[in-house]
Amino acid sequence: MTHNNLFRVTTLNLNGIRSAARKGVDAWLREQARPDWLCVQEIKAAAADLGDALRGLGGLRGAFQHADKPGYSGVGLYWRHEPDEVVIGFGAAEFDAEGRCVEARYRLPGGMRLALVSVYFPSGSSSDERQQAKYRFLECFGEHLRALRARGEVLLCGDVNIAHKEIDLKNWKGNLNNSGFLPEERAWMSKLLEVHGWVDVFRALNPAPEQYTWWSNRGQARAKNVGWRIDYQLATPAVAALAQPGSEAIYTAARFSDHAPLSIDYALPF
Fold first, then answer.
1. Among 33, 49, 149, 195, which one is least packed by beta carbons within 10 Å?
2. Using a CB cutoff of 8 Å and minimum separation of 24, what contacts does 171-174 make?
3. Does residue 238 belong to any structural domain of this protein?
4. b/e map of 130-161 (b: 16 or more CB within 10 Å)?
């Protein structure tokens, strides 16, 4: 919730919006998290499946990109502050059909142009075919990020399905050959951050190990905190500089999904 020009941004892979709603995500958003923007991924619902309650999670208003395939993927972006423009998809037919990107654009006082993006990167874990699709996504979405940055400042939130460094997953040695921690995927992240200058905002604020946002449903992964940090807030430097130290939070007290919500407060010039 807005306090003294602080604006909270929360991102969460819902693993099904209807499932997360049954597990109490709306009450948590309204009573505890109180975000100004909420980026959600893997809603797994068609437009006809969303009633007023799901369209207004947390008391916010939202826009969505649904996958063509029923019960698959899909993203949403909810806001307390009406955008100047909403963009559904990013112009790549293969991935727009899978429901992977929603963008809200703002022109802020003082002239800052801000694009807030909710994105769901493909997973490549099910097959080599899907891994190749993930590589295609990384290539074309990388181009999209360059275009976005040419327009102004960007805050990209979502499930990137990549753990960047060894600190970002518990069992890194056992996952060196697995999707999500492959050298090519990690190199894409490194290039984004180290060459193109984007900032992994959570990691910039919190260097501690064992900070994860996703856990397998197998075994006792969540109870033992054998997880991966694959949900991010990635920002251009001017936006990252507005992130408030100590505001970064991965919420694990309740379980709405196999992912945990990630929230960060920003001193945006609204």
1. 195
2. 171/226
3. yes
4. ebebbeebbeebeebbeebeeebbbbbbbbbb
Alpha carbons 179 and 175: distance in angstroms, whole number: 8
The helix (run of H) or strand (run of E) holding residue 53 is helix 52-55
Instruction: Give the Cα separation of 71 and 44 in Å (integer).
Output: 4
Residues of the chain with pLDDT under 50: 1-3
Instruction: Give the 3-state secondary structure percentages of the chain, helix then strand then coil, rounded to 5.
Output: 30, 25, 45
Q: Is position 246 within any domain?
A: yes
pLDDT value of residue 148:
97
- DSSP, collapsed to helix, strand or coil, labels residue 137 as helix
**Active-site pick, 159, 168, 200, 231:** 159
The answer to whether 159 is a known catalytic residue is yes
- Within a domain: 11: yes
CA distance 247 to 109: 24
The tens digit of pLDDT for each residue in 104-142 reads 999 998 899 999 999 999 999 999 999 999 999 999 999
In a domain, 2, yes or no: no
Domain ranges, residue 150: 7-266
Domain tally for the chain? 1
In the block, which residue shows the tokens 């891994």?
A: 131
- What pLDDT, in 10s, does the model give residues 32-66? 999 999 999 999 999 999 999 999 999 999 999 99
Beta strands 37-41; 7-13: pairing state: parallel
Which CATH number characterizes residue 163's domain? 3.60.10.10
Name all contacts of 186-191 with Cβ < 8 Å and 24+ positions apart: 186/162, 188/138, 188/142, 188/162, 189/160, 189/162, 189/164, 190/164
